[in-house]
Structure formats: structure tokens, C-alpha cells
From TrEMBL:
<dbReference type="Pfam" id="PF01182">
    <property type="entry name" value="Glucosamine_iso"/>
</dbReference>
<feature type="domain" description="Glucosamine/galactosamine-6-phosphate isomerase">
    <location>
        <begin position="16"/>
        <end position="237"/>
    </location>
</feature>
<dbReference type="InterPro" id="IPR037171">
    <property type="entry name" value="NagB/RpiA_transferase-like"/>
</dbReference>
<dbReference type="InterPro" id="IPR005900">
    <property type="entry name" value="6-phosphogluconolactonase_DevB"/>
</dbReference>
<keyword id="KW-0378">Hydrolase</keyword>
<dbReference type="InterPro" id="IPR039104">
    <property type="entry name" value="6PGL"/>
</dbReference>
<comment type="function">
    <text>Hydrolysis of 6-phosphogluconolactone to 6-phosphogluconate.</text>
</comment>
<comment type="pathway">
    <text>Carbohydrate degradation; pentose phosphate pathway; D-ribulose 5-phosphate from D-glucose 6-phosphate (oxidative stage): step 2/3.</text>
</comment>
<dbReference type="GO" id="GO:0005975">
    <property type="term" value="P:carbohydrate metabolic process"/>
</dbReference>
<comment type="similarity">
    <text>Belongs to the glucosamine/galactosamine-6-phosphate isomerase family. 6-phosphogluconolactonase subfamily.</text>
</comment>
<protein>
    <recommendedName>
        <fullName>6-phosphogluconolactonase</fullName>
        <ecNumber>3.1.1.31</ecNumber>
    </recommendedName>
</protein>
<dbReference type="InterPro" id="IPR006148">
    <property type="entry name" value="Glc/Gal-6P_isomerase"/>
</dbReference>
<dbReference type="GO" id="GO:0017057">
    <property type="term" value="F:6-phosphogluconolactonase activity"/>
</dbReference>
<dbReference type="GO" id="GO:0006098">
    <property type="term" value="P:pentose-phosphate shunt"/>
</dbReference>
Length: 257
């Protein structure tokens, strides 16, 4: 697969979410295996929402044997501040579609805590966990999975949120204009220290926010995805035709993997 340059993201468009998820799964496995080959471990950040479900199901079934689960550590990019067994929980969604179906050691699974009475304490606990697991001020995730909402938010970094300006925290507790309103989220510096960011975007409802993110007019405050510029990593957009409705040929990679 051609490696997109850090300056120019790879935008790969597929007829439907299944084709998109299949290609993204293959690329994710390639990155994970390269990381394990090079470092002995791989650290992945899972996204919430609905779009990743198809990818997670593929990783749990057809592609399960290709991922070195014993050497893979799973983290989350954001979490709704609800119990882990709540249907709105991102951990719950990943558990249902992936975690319950793969031979991953429980010690490799690092959900964001949602049991502290104060979400700020939960944010600080996960921030500390990342500080312990990774040397230096910022974790170096091998791949961060992100979705893109119709309103432009990524993880739980919403347009115009003060959390977008934070440069001294790995994890924040935020109040967001969506249900449920209390959430935990990684910050932009964490995303921008990743080796790779994979956006998963599907459906016509995302066409506007995707066009703004890739073509503009937009800025990192009104469109958080524009602030995703890894210092030493690449960005790959895995997109279906519905979300790509407004994207012209110049934006689309000519040869999707
Ligand atoms: C969440 C996600 C969020 C999501 C987008 C897209 O907790 O909801 O992390 O950032 O990725 O809202 O959601 P869909 O994939 O459901 O469209």
C-alpha cells in the first residue's frame, strides 16, 4: 500500500462501508505487524461511535488470525461517561463487536475509567496511565483510529471546544453538546504524536464535514480534524462514496489499496 506522506494525507474511497472497512482492516494489521516486528509491541487507539463496528467485526472474524493480539495493547480515544455496560459506552461497543471474540490478554485492554464520581479524576487517572505506559511526555501510538462526526468533532473534541487548545494534558474530561454530555477524550497533542492516524468516515451525512476537513474552508477551531497533523506520522482517510460525495478527483487517491 502506498504510504501517504505526513503532509498529504491518503484519501481512499470505496463503494461502501464494507469495502472501506476491509481495506482499513488490512492496513491496520500491516501497521500492527510492522510495529510488533520493530518494537515487540503495538499500541492502538480505538474509536467509538458506529462507523468502526464493521472494522471491529472484521478484526474479530475474517482477519482475527492476522493480528498479533498477544502483543497488541488497546486504548481508547474517547469515552462517554457512562457505566462500561451501558449501550452508549464506546468500550461496550468494542467489547460486543471485537473484544469478546479475540484471544487478547485482558491485561492488554486499557479502557477509559468511568467509575470515578468526578470525571476529572477519571481523566487524570487515564492521563497517568498513559504517562506510565509510554516514556516521555506523549504516548507514541502506532495507530489512532478516529471517526468524523457530521458536526466535525473527532474523538470528543468538538468544534470551538477549549479542549482543542490544551497542550499540557494527555486526557481531558469535557462537557459536550451531545448525548451523553460528559466525556473523556485524548487531546490533539496525543493524536499528533501518533505514528499514524486512520480516519473512518462513511455515509452521505458526513459529506459536508469531510469536504470541510479535506478541502475547506475550515480551521482547527471550527473543524478539529484540520488540527490533526502528526509531527512524525501519517494520516489516512478511509471513506465510502457516500461520505465522499463532495470530493473531487484531486482529493481522492488514484489507487486505493
Ligand atoms: C464517539 C466517537 C465520536 C465518533 C463520531 C462519529 O464517542 O461518538 O468517538 O468521535 O467517532 O461522532 O460517529 P459515528 O461513527 O457514529 O458516525
Amino acid at each position: 500500500m502506498p504510504t501517504p506522506s505526513p503532509t498529504k494525507p491518503g484519501v481512499y474511497v470505496y463503494p461502501d462501508i464494507d469495502g472501506m472497512s476491509r481495506a482499513a482492516a488490512r492496513a491496520l494489521i500491516d501497521r500492527a505487524r510492522e510495529a510488533v516486528e520493530a518494537e515487540g509491541r503495538c499500541a492502538l487507539v480505538l474509536s467509538g461511535g458506529n462507523t468502526p463496528r464493521a472494522l471491529y467485526r472484521l478484526l474479530a472474524t475474517e482477519f482475527a488470525r492476522r493480528m498479533p493480539w498477544g502483543q497488541v495493547d488497546l486504548f481508547w480515544g474517547d469515552e462517554r461517561y457512562v457505566p462500561a455496560d451501558d449501550s452508549r459506552s464506546n468500550f461496550h461497543m468494542a467489547k460486543e463487536t471485537l473484544l469478546d471474540h479475540i484471544p487478547i490478554p485482558p491485561a492488554n485492554i486499557h479502557p477509559m475509567p468511568t467509575t470515578h464520581p468526578d470525571p476529572e479524576d477519571a481523566a487524570r487517572a487515564y492521563d497517568a496511565l498513559l504517562g506510565q505506559r509510554f516514556p516521555g511526555p506523549w504516548p507514541r501510538f502506532d495507530v489512532v483510529l478516529l471517526g468524523l462526526a457530521a458536526d466535525g468533532h473527532i474523538a470528543s473534541l468538538f468544534p470551538a471546544s477549549p479542549a482543542l487548545q490544551v497542550t499540557n494534558r494527555r486526557v481531558m474530561a469535557v462537557q459536550v453538546p451531545a448525548e451523553p454530555p460528559r466525556r473523556l477524550t485524548i487531546t490533539l497533542p496525543v493524536i499528533n504524536h501518533a505514528a499514524a492516524v486512520f480516519f473512518l468516515v462513511a455515509g452521505k451525512g458526513k459529506a459536508g464535514s469531510l469536504h470541510r476537513a479535506l478541502v475547506g474552508p475550515c480551521d482547527p477551531v471550527t473543524c478539529p480534524a484540520v488540527g490533526v497533523r502528526p509531527e512524525a506520522g501519517d494520516v489516512v482517510w478511509w471513506v465510502d462514496e457516500g461520505a465522499a460525495t463532495f470530493l473531487g478527483p484531486a482529493v481522492r487517491a488514484t489507487s486505493p489499496p
